[in-house]
Amino acid sequence: MPPRLLITGSRTWVDRAVVRDALRAWWDTTGRNPEAVLVSGACPKDADRICEEIWKHNGLTVERHPAQWKKPDGTVDKRAGFNRNAAMVDTGPDHLIAFIMDGSNGATHTLNYAKKKGIPVTVHEATTTPGA
Length: 132
Prior knowledge:
Blueprint: E1 4-9, H1 16-29, E2 37-40, H2 47-57, E3 61-64, H3 80-89, E4 95-101, H4 105-116, E5 121-126
Parallel strand pairs: 1-2, 1-4, 2-3, 4-5
């Protein structure tokens, strides 16, 4: 089975260089395995989008797990993001990289659940408030 990297990140994460360097560092640990898979929450903006763009640019496979925000009855499922995050961790990735801005609840939830499941993690944190 190819190595699988789960990423999680804040919707406000914009530091492309940190993402690029983190993905490269992990990929190097796989021996630059061309079958390595990026597991993503498929958010159209933020760290997810940046990770997917970089991964695809290098010809690698992305496994997308978009949250199902709308229930069959048309109402909004406010827990959809958390449910999706847990489901991604439950796929059994080899590693998780988190890009957390200002303590993001969703990314932090994914990180903590991965730790609880014994998945090795790498964390990149930033704040938008100077000196915070």
